[in-house]
């Protein structure tokens, strides 16, 4: 049963009446599995934008699904030619870090992505492998910095909760801590600043949600969808824009997508 939509509505009404929301509830609603469709398919367009304005275009097919309350995601790179047929599998685990596997077509090999590589670039973008998953509640120390702060992202105003999140295991991530602005209507972070490990006042990466909307899956359930997203490397000036071109939610996908056989062949039964 999808409960989060109702939870978010109740929490939003309570906040609107002047009662304080707790940081635990904010993070719980955002990370709750009920916010994720049971199955999803989308076409993702990525623009890697150099500081001089040069743009590299990428197209990726994404499939998501799972069982027993766990979610698996696979990515299949369609273009450019240098990345074509690169495929990545992320498998959620209970009580430990998620598994990640990558198929490298040039080598015709599938290998596990070690923990030490998860803060590195996701196939040449300004995202890391860590950015591709939502951190679990117990992985961070979360503090509510401001209860109601208005910010503008890409011309749209949001009333937000401002939250500071400090990883409990610093070696697992590439930053010291992050500051997130959670939209009070959807509980989605519309802006995140990532701070340097050595210089706590220095922002090394900026995330901004350029377009956020509520969409319906095939069952009629609504989900918050971040249609356009920008990651900016504050050190180099390089950017990656991630856009969702099309999507299908809650239409069953074969479990064979989430296997190493699919990684190697790109074929699902």
Fold and architecture overview:
By secondary structure, this protein is mainly beta. It is 10% helix and 45% strand. The protein has helices at residues 4-16, 23-31, 260-265; strands spanning 40-49, 55-65, 72-79, 87-91, 99-104, 109-112, 140-153, 156-167, 177-183, 189-195, 203-216, 222-233, 239-249. The two termini are 28 Å apart. The model is unreliable at 1-19 (pLDDT under 50).
Helix content: 10-25%
What low-confidence regions span 5 or more consecutive residues with pLDDT below 50? 1-19
Number of strands: 13
Structural class: mainly beta
Order of helices and strands: HHEEEEEEEEEEEEEH
Measure the end-to-end span: 28 Å
Strand content: 35-45%
Overall shape: it is globular
Instruction: Using the CA coordinates, give the radius of gyration.
Output: 18 Å
Instruction: Tell me the major beta sheet.
Output: 13 strands, antiparallel
Residue-averaged pLDDT:
87
- The spatial strand order of the largest sheet comes to 6-5-4-3-2-1-13-12-11-10-9-8-7
Q: How many helix segments? A: 3
Please give the structural blueprint.
Blueprint: H1 4-16, H2 23-31, E1 40-49, E2 55-65, E3 72-79, E4 87-91, E5 99-104, E6 109-112, E7 140-153, E8 156-167, E9 177-183, E10 189-195, E11 203-216, E12 222-233, E13 239-249, H3 260-265
Antiparallel strand pairs: 1-2, 1-13, 2-3, 3-4, 4-5, 5-6, 7-8, 8-9, 9-10, 10-11, 11-12, 12-13
């Amino acid at each position: 049963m999808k409960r989060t939509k109702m939870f978010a509505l109740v929490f939003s009404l309570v906040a609107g009446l002047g009662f304080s929301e707790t940081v635990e509830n904010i993070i719980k609603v955002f990370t709750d599995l009920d916010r994720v469709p049971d199955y999803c398919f989308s076409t993702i367009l990525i623009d890697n934008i150099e500081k001089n304005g040069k743009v590299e275009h990428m197209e990726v097919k994404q499939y998501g699904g799972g069982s027993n309350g766990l979610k698996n995601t696979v990515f299949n790179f369609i273009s450019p030619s240098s990345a074509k047929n690169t495929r990545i599998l992320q498998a959620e685990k209970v009580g430990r870090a998620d598994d990640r596997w990558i198929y490298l077509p040039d080598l015709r090999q599938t290998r596990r992505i070690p923990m030490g590589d998860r803060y590195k670039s996701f196939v040449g973008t300004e995202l890391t492998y860590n950015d591709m998953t939502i951190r679990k509640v117990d992985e961070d120390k979360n503090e509510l910095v401001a209860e109601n702060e208005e910010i503008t992202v890409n011309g749209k105003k949001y009333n937000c909760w401002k939250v500071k999140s400090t990883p409990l295991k610093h070696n697992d991530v590439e930053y010291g801590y992050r500051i997130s602005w959670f939209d009070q209507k959807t509980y989605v972070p519309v802006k995140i600043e990532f701070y340097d490990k050595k210089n706590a006042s220095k922002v090394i990466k900026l995330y901004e949600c350029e377009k956020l909307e509520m969409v319906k899956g095939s069952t009629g359930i609504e989900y918050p969808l971040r249609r356009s997203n920008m990651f900016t490397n504050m050190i180099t000036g390089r950017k990656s824009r991630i856009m969702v071109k099309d999507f299908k939610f809650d239409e069953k996908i074969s479990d064979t997508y989430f296997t190493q056989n699919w990684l190697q062949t790109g074929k699902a039964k």
